[in-house]
Amino acid sequence: MKLVSIVIGTYNGAAYISEQLESIIHQTYTPLEIVIADDASNDNTVDIIKKYCKKHDNITLHAFKNNVGYIKNFERGIALATGDFIALSDQDDWWMPTKIEKLMNHIQPYDLVYCDSVFVDDALHDLGNSFSQTKNLIGPGTPLNLLIDNCVSGHASLFKKSLYEKAIPFPDLIPHDWWLAYVATTENNIFYLNEPLVKYRHHQNNIIASTKKTKNSKKRKKSKQVKFTEKRKRIDNFYNQCPDSLKEEKKIILSIKKTYRNFSLINNFRRGLIFYTYRNELLKIIKKDALNRILFIASMFFRIK
């Protein structure tokens, strides 16, 4: 049995970390090591984890003094893992007991396998929704499927340590789970296990991509420019990571990359045309009917995703 390293990224998670650790400790798969990377919490998260470390010799805590954000915190946490396979964990979810066992049963020959998750409230009560109801969860796939959006959640995935070695360093502007899944589609691909094995707490604190509106029009304009620059850098990263062996995919990504230079009329037109031509690949994970997909493509004339 291969060692699986579960890497938990924590930051001020005192309210939920105990429940999550209990669900991980009682996994049916062995052997497991649990590596916790704390991103400079200022509540009693670390104290709670230390109590678990005393009871379980397979739990190790790395309490960092410098806060680097969730992407880089997971990167340094994975670097400390010794298993051939890695499973990522948020601090506030709850795992089904057979999660790791079932994912390990489907990992070969892929680089990454992931499952569905159900949404629950703070008390783990089912909210009647799941990730598979919000996006098309796919696998195997191509890099084009993950070019503008992601369907692979880190908390629901398990991957080979060798994938991490191909994916580092993680880009600052792309969530780590999105990046790992994208890299996997350029290598030995991903697999989707159509079964909910995680209870995902849906609350304000775990919404990473929340944006705040500003009243000042100048700040609003600056924010749009920053977002444009970030998205342009993101597509640059995707293009550079795509191997030359995937000639057709890299050619399409390059054509999109060129339209991200600015919002000239010609670039806007080209961008919309590219998205229409390759809509089946680029919009594969987006849950929209045919009409709304066309409207989405039309919107690409005015913005970039």
Please describe what this structure looks like:
The protein is an alpha/beta fold and 305 residues long. 39% of the residues lie in helices and 19% in strands. Helix 5 crosses helix 6 (176-185), helix 8 (247-259) packs antiparallel against helix 9 and helix 9 packs antiparallel against helix 11 (290-299). The chain is globular, with a radius of gyration of 20 Å. The termini are far apart. Residues 207-219 have low confidence and may be disordered.
Q: What's the short version?
A:
The chain has 305 residues and is α/β, with parallel strands linked by helices.
Query: Taking Cα atoms only, what radius of gyration do you get, to the nearest Å?
Result: 20 Å
Tell me the structural class: alpha/beta
As residue ranges, the low-confidence spans are 207-219
| DSSP E strands, number | 9
The backbone outline, from C-alpha atoms, is globular
Report the sheet-strand fraction: 15-25%
Give the SSE order as H and E letters.
EHEHEHEEHEEEHHEHHHHH
Rounded average pLDDT: 92
Summarize the biggest pleated sheet.
9 strands, mixed
What is the number of helices?
A: 11
Q: In whole angstroms, how far apart are the ends? A: 42 Å
Helix percentage: 25-40%
What attributes characterize this protein structure?
11 helices, nine-stranded mixed beta sheet, 19% strand, alpha/beta
How are the secondary structure elements laid out?
Layout: E1 4-10, H1 17-25, E2 32-39, H2 45-55, E3 59-64, H3 70-79, E4 85-89, E5 94-95, H4 99-104, E6 112-120, E7 126-130, E8 157-160, H5 161-167, H6 176-185, E9 190-201, H7 217-241, H8 247-259, H9 265-277, H10 279-282, H11 290-299
Parallel strand pairs: 1-2, 1-4, 2-3, 6-9
Antiparallel strand pairs: 4-8, 5-9, 6-7, 6-8
Helix pairs in contact: 5-6, 7-8, 8-9, 9-11
